[in-house]
User: Fold these one by one.
Assistant:
Number 1:
Amino acid sequence: NNPSYGPFNATFWNSVVLYNPFTVRVHPDGQPHLISDPITFYLASSEGGSLAPAQILIVTKSIATEIATLAAGSILALVDLTVWIDQHLSAADVTAWALLLAIVGALAWPRLARFGERRVRAWLLALVYIGVVYATIPIFPQLWHGLRIHTGDSIRHTGSVIIGAIAIWSAWRLHKRVQGKQVGPYLLYAILLVAYIALLIRFGQFPAERLHLLEYGFMGVLLLRARTIDRSPRVQDFVICWGLTVLIGCGDETIQWVLPQRYFELKDVGLNAVSGALGLCLSRLVTGGQQQ
């Protein structure tokens, strides 16, 4: 008997093996309490060999389409956010807040000037970032929903795409610093990369969780930069900045605990801590412990 491929061809179905393994659970209609245990299975290619050029082309096209959809959807979501801000914040409010901040800055600067302008700017950037993270906690579900409207299922790749771009940039910076003269840094980079990939896979079902890797990894780097803006970082600097990142992550979860329809999760506290540690390790590896 000749196989039937429906509206597609054999090449299309053979490309599905790239998404192995598959896991399914079933239950009788209307009886979800009788759901079965997960069953995992693998599909095999009818060709039994390596990927055909046509399959590679299909996969490449699919990845490019997903990234293009994500990029276009993100731009549209930013437009929506801009419109929303324009509708909810009047020019008078913005002007008033800007004036208030200017007055506070003018009053505080004489006391802060002794720390140096670069250090003050670095700490201000870190504090603003922390403020943005905390301020967006109540509205993050709405922001994520708005992004999903424009990007569809492509939204699940957000964290992966950004981390992939950072990985490429970090590899370039690392090679530029090491110039292939040492093997150790490349091995450490490979270990960090495997850790990031493992976490991306681990949280594949919850794409929003992947953003913690970016959010708190960057948090740790900003804190380290602020603390060591005028010198090379020492081991205790990394430990202190990691500890601060963990505390800020605990504050994040505490805010979610008191908000309606948000939840405190120890899992997220742990993920924030791991994300901060990975970000600091990557920063140390890329910069070689030099002043940032």
Note: The chain has two domains: 1-51, 69-74+112-287.
Number 2:
Amino acid sequence: MRRFLEPEFTVSSQSQATNAMIEPNRNGITKWRELLAQAAECVAFSPDLAFYVANPDGQIILASPAYYSVQNPTGGQGEFIASHISDFIATHRESFEQNERVDVKGRRGFAKSCHYPVFGDSKSVIGIFGYYVDTTDQLETLQKITRELDRKNDQVRASSDFFWEIDGEGKIFDLSDRITDVAGRPAVLFIGRALSELGEFVDRAGNATGLPTAIDGRQPFRDTIFRIADEREQERFFHLSGVPFFDTDTGAFAGFRGVGTDVTERFRMEDSAARARSQLEQAREDLTNRNTQLEMERGRAEKALRAKSEFLA
């Protein structure tokens, strides 16, 4: 795609402007030279600059070849710029900017367009000057980064239940809205509070353990158990994982960010399975003890029967 050069805002003469590779649109407009001279005071023209000069009604007086290479750049029809641009400048007497899709030689792209009123000696608007800057590369790069971030966010969402972030003082400054369903209170109410006001770190038995040593040591940690109780004191357990992050300019420690994964149901199933195993072990032990008692009673009965048989004999 042909690139549009951004103009250099320097003082230029009328001769520089008229010597540029442009052809005026001679259709009864008599003030195009005056408009061009005033526009030349603001911008140094270049054959690669997509620009135009129009009268106050938006009718194009002259334009560069690069301008005509952009198909319908302002959304205008024929020899007019878009009416919403000329109407805005006529009403507000100030510049107008917009980002738009353009089509250059059959290829789709993006451009930023800037449009300025040109004032006469009486301070009335006697024309409009505009130019285009190719932003295709920047926007495509931004879109690529956005898609990559969305992909990574989707991956994180698929493997976790909420996001959290604390600053260097341990205060929460980012918390995903999903925590509302867990804590029973809007996530925004926890912003600026200590992580301990959201919940507490515990061991597998549910005993409080305090802040993980990894946080004090500014080291990554993974699957540390974190208990959150809602307003009805119903508890949920999460595996909390986090990594430290640092200021990109100074390198100073800036806080931790990470995710929380709900393991409440998993813990319940594990606890239920553990209770079932315990009950099974107890039942097996009871059965073993009962069998032992039966064997002992059978032995005593057999011994008594033999003694009786010997006595009768």
Note: The chain has eight helices and 13 strands.
